[in-house]
Amino acid sequence: MMRPTILNLTAAVIAAALVLASCSTDGSKPRADGEIVLEIATFGDWGYAPYIEQWEAKHPNVRVEYETAGGGDDQREKLLNFLGQGSGLACVEALEVDWLGEFKGFSDRFVDLSTPELEDRWFDWKSEMATTDDGKLIGYGTDIGPQAVAYRADLFKAAGLPSDREMVAEYLGGDNATWQRFYEVGAEFTAQSDAAWFESVQGAYTAMVNQIEYAYENEDGTRKDLAGSEIERIFRTVLEHGTGQQQSAGLAQWSSDWNASFKRNDTFAVVLAPSWMAGVIKNNAGEDFVGWDIANVFPGGGGNWGGSYLSVPVQCEYPEQAKDLAAYLTSPEVMLDLVVKSGGGTPSQVEAMSSPKLLPLTNPFFDNAPTGRIWADRAAAVKVVPFKGPNYKKVHDVIVAGLNRVDVDKSQSVDQSWAQVLADLASLN
Amino acid sequence: MTTTHNPATEPGAGASTRERRRPHRGPRRRGTAAGLDLRLSPYVYIAPFFVLLFLFGLAPMFYTAWVALHEWHPIGGQGAFVGLDNFTAVLGQDMFWKSVFNTLSIFVFTAVPQLVAAIFIAAVLDANLRAGTFWRMAVLLPYVAAPVAVAIIFSNLFGNQFGLVNNLLATVGLPQIQWTGSSTASHIAIATMVSFRWTGYNALILLAGMQAIPRDLYEAASIDGANRVRRFFSVTIPMLRPTLIFVIITATIGNLQTFDEVRIFGGAGGNGPVGGADGQWKTITLYLWEVGWRQANLGRSAAIAWLLLLLIVLIGLVNLLAARKIASENGAKR
Description:
- The complex is a heterodimer.
- Chain A is of the alpha/beta class.
- Helix content of chain A is 44%, strand content 11%.
- Chain A has 18 helices and eleven strands.
- In chain A, the strands form three sheets. Chain A has a five-stranded mixed beta sheet. Chain A has a four-stranded mixed beta sheet with strand order 7-8-6-9.
- In chain A, helix 2 (49-58) links the parallel strand 1 and strand 2 (62-67).
- In chain A, helix 9 runs antiparallel to helix 10 (230-244).
- By secondary structure, chain B is mainly α.
- Chain B has a domain at 86-210 and 236-333: MetI-like (MetI-like fold), CATH 1.10.3720.10.
- Chain B has helices at 17-20, 26-68, 85-91, 94-126, 132-144, 147-157, 164-171, 183-211, 215-223, 228-239, 241-256, 260-264, 284-293, 298-333; strands spanning 70-73, 77-81.
- In chain B, strands 1-2 form a two-stranded antiparallel sheet.
- The longest helix of chain B is centred in the N-terminal third of the chain and has 43 residues, at 26-68.
- Chain B: Residues 1-31 are annotated as: Disordered.
- Chain B: InterPro entries: ABC_transporter_permease (IPR051393), MetI-like (IPR000515), MetI-like_sf (IPR035906).
- Chain B: The chain crosses the membrane at residues 43-63, 104-125, 137-158, 188-210, 231-253, 303-323.
- Chain B: Keywords: Cell membrane, Membrane, Transmembrane, Transmembrane helix, Transport.
């Protein structure tokens, strides 16, 4: 036997502490009499905490637990898994517009949320996207993602481009801004600067594809043959400018490199930003970062990227309370307050969008850009509501991987990558 | 056994006291009860293990086989019976073979340096260090950390443009490496995090093996004039063979199922493609999961699971043969 020493004991204590720390603890506390626990899960923190408290105050017998883990793709996997199992989900679960269509086929797993009083709360197209053919509403709309051009005024200036937000909008084409003009200015910028023009080909591609009504699927949800399609043209256009002319920073969106790049001064000059991206840019760059601005313009005539819903799976024990909570969190008052306080996001509620509180909003991080006006204008400029059926997300993932093979990994040519996209799509099902 | 009283050789001794209080039942009856007890109780004693094995091991395995023969959606459940279509579809896909290659490649990149390092660490720990227990616990600490946490931190270190490893490479004037770009680079990055977790664990097992080596062998070798290095290669390594075989087999099985590290590496916070845009580091388990829960095709995913099982059995057999051969060589030497 070895003589136990202080060092040994310390090591044992440290090891034990690490074991304990690495075990996840179950957060459920003993329930008071008659108290029910309602879980709500969103991908990322949607800032609901204060509004959940308000709702709890009105429902003293309900305690709400807010889970904010994971990204959108994680959320989709979770739903695919636990909707099938019939248990394991929170009472209120977030849905994202890109894969909402996939779950409409399983609307029997969701509580029908349609309520006559709330019928006119959202823009028609927002609710229609979450309504099944037989009239069931599976999600209450939260926000939408109208897109504008977020840009680095300092880099623009250094490259000899206009840096004032109105002039930038005008320079990119104003109301008649086109993608061609966007890439032309990009070439002009990259000739004068060490920085790339935009952050990722994925961002540019997503913006372009969201302007197409039937991108990957036909009206009945069946998959299109993409060879020689508009999608192939966009795929090639984005890569030709992004990788070929080095207008892209060569980053994969949401990767650790991409996150870290916002802290750098000279990586890229433009993010094709939906309104919720404003918060992402600010968080990644850090509050003190100076230089970002937003121009009230978007190439190709307005675009919308993303936007979410709150749903109630039927496996929830307390569907009435869950429905009430989801309705409260998607009410115009809450959404408006959230947008006013966070400076990001755009409501999908008619009343909130026309509120006099919304238009005067400015965002100090973006050099006090009049974001209220900008997002409202950008939302109004959206002309196409893209159809996203059961196959949209799967196809989109395959194409994004193809873009990144060329632009991020630099392991394939555009032709090779597109050929593999077609092969991968063929083997999907 | 310390006692010479062996129930198995004395008929009736195993019968209960209740039986003994009723002599009128006769010896024949007592013999049967005792016999039953003798024959059955061993099975009853080991039954819990087999019940659990069946519930959590075999039953899911056969259910998976059933799923693999159908179209199967995670939510929609069982669809049409398709026979072996799922298997042929999987075997016909380049990505499947790529994932097999990736799995084996990451295994080689992990196992070889890890074993060498583990033996070295074990040899150092086997020497008379001060505060030996402290050092032994210290090498085990990485094993205690949650694999996902390790993977997240290492993924940041191996960032393509702003990772610490590339910064260090740039500082000493070496070219930066696109870690998520090529198979080889990504495999090395992943092997690093897997090794970080498992080297200490294996070192401790090898250390236990080393301490079981009779010390008189070393004394004899010293007297014969063998120096430290010679003693290590001529005494320690040959005597360590059985332990090495154990470590290699467990490492093989563990590596064939690598998931956490490859899932997190190059990841995008729960968004985007998994295992690389070209599947550069998509292992079999990651591919299985992607097909099942990203492509929503559980039937095909189940087929991959069975192919993985076959691969593990195959590699296990190779391991076993190699181990037998080594063991018999070992025996011949004694």
